[in-house]
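quick q for whoever's on today - can somebody do inverse folding on this one?? i tried earlier but teh output was garbage lol. tokens:
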């Protein structure tokens, strides 16, 4: 009889045959990278993984070995790798015209903004396109400051909003911050996630106490009026953390009572990933004043956006504001195709159904594996927090790294996050199937069994 520790789960079949790889050897690729690129740019496995081809939810290395991708290029490949429709539209546009900038007209620019507005709550219908999530958040904060006339911004502990100096100031993990002067006026309120909250009580009581912490932060650290409150509806890098359903409603009311705008950073949680809704904030019954987007909006092409109400956007017109690549016709073509594919292939519904199946499976694993301290998330944005002891919640950091390594050996790629790097982040392309997640669960079962010893 085979035991979990000796089983090698079988990946579901895939008809795609990768092209033979004819590029430089992996050792050469690694050596060149090490010599000529900034050493701060890191890889995640002990033996770096080289990926040369993709097909929907699968990736192929230089030997043709296939992997099930449950991390989607860090929550970015929303529709699937090398999606034929997205690829075709990008190729067609690149062959016609790659770039002119927004000082000239191009039909894709307004059209994509219009289609994005149709996905938003009424009133959120004016968009500024940029190239990355950090830039989108910088611009959102700028607009909020201009609109309100206030400077202070509240973000949440354990949040991640990017790596530019302004976005790094919003980010709240010491691991992602440099000891240099960042943007001033940013304060961090308590994260409402009940698993590691400093407050006690039910998740809903913890949510209320966390919302009250925003009021306290405003009282003690600001002039009493703020420009904005920025949150990821579900924290991504932080390890899929979020408050009980009452949190954002209570938080938004407190922020608005102090003159602030509410910014939803949908860089990870948008575009149907959470399953029940198109936007992460809709899971909590709130309507933000500004929404920032990146990653999944372009299925891997450099594209990001800030959508808000006209009266807020108009404040930018007092000076010249320009972004060279923002609104680029090729990225707009990608974005338009992505919106269509998400609807045509019912990827939000797939996130709900397949994500639900995966979460149930993870909860079942939690009943058998002591390393699992918490399973959380919605749709295809799931987190599994690993701890050495369920009472002390001692983060199982090394064990998490080992789980990642061993999953890779079995052909499954996941991410990790959280302040202590002890949360498995599972956020696949939204076309992942039930058979894929069953395979991933089997693989995780085997690996957890081995790591637990
Ligand atoms: C929630 C969130 N906001 C902003 C960013 C920054 O995006 P970018 O890396 O495109 O600048 C990220 C990146 O991981 C993110 O997860």
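ok took a stab at it. sequence:
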């Amino acid at each position: 009889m085979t035991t979990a520790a000796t089983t090698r789960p079988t990946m579901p079949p895939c008809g795609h045959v990768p092209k033979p790889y004819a590029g430089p050897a992996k050792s050469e690729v690694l050596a060149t990278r090490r010599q000529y690129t900034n050493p701060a740019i890191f890889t995640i496995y002990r033996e770096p993984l080289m990926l040369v081809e993709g097909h929907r939810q699968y990736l192929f290395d230089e030997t043709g070995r296939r992997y099930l991708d449950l991390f989607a290029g860090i929550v970015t490949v929303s529709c699937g790798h090398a999606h034929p429709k997205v690829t075709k539209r990008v190729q067609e546009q690149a062959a016609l015209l790659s770039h002119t900038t927004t000082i000239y007209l191009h039909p894709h620019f307004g059209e994509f903004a219009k289609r994005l507005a149709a996905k938003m709550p009424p009133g959120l219908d004016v968009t500024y396109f940029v190239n990355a999530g950090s830039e989108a958040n910088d611009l959102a904060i700028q607009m909020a400051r201009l609109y309100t006339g206030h400077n202070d911004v509240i973000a949440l502990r354990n949040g991640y909003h990017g790596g530019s100096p302004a976005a790094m100031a919003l980010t709240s993990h010491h691991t992602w911050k440099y000891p240099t002067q960042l943007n001033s006026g940013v304060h961090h309120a308590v994260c409402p996630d009940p698993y590691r909250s400093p407050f006690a009580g039910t998740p809903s009581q913890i949510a209320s106490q966390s919302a009250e912490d925003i009021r306290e932060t405003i009282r003690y650290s600001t002039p009493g009026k703020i420009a904005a409150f920025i949150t990821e509806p579900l924290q991504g890098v932080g390890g899929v953390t979020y408050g009980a359903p009452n949190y954002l409603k209570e938080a938004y009311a407190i922020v608005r009572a102090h003159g602030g705008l509410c910014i939803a950073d949908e860089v990870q949680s948008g575009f149907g990933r959470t399953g029940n809704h198109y936007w992460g904030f809709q899971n909590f019954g709130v309507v933000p004043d500004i929404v920032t987007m990146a990653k999944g909006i372009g299925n891997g092409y450099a594209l990001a956006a800030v959508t808000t109400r006209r009266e807020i956007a108009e404040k930018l017109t007092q000076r010249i504001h320009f972004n060279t690549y923002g609104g680029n016709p090729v990225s707009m073509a990608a974005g338009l195709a992505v919106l269509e594919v998400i609807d045509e292939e019912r990827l939000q519904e797939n996130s709900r159904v397949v994500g639900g199946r995966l979460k149930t499976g993870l909860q079942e694993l939690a009943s058998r594996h002591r390393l699992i301290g918490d399973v959380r998330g919605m749709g295809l944005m799931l987190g599994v927090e690993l701890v050495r002891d369920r009472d002390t919640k001692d983060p199982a950091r090394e064990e998490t790294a080992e789980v990642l390594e061993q999953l890779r050996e079995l052909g499954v790629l996941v991410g990790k996050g959280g302040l202590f790097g002890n949360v498995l982040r599972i956020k696949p392309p939204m076309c992942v199937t039930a058979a894929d997640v069953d395979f991933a669960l089997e693989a995780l079962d085997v690996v957890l069994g081995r790591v637990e010893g």
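fwiw The chain has a mean pLDDT of 97. also Residues 74, 132-134, 137, 160-162, 232, 236-237, 265, 267-268, 294 surround pyridoxal-5'-phosphate (CB under 6 Å). so keep that in mind when u check it
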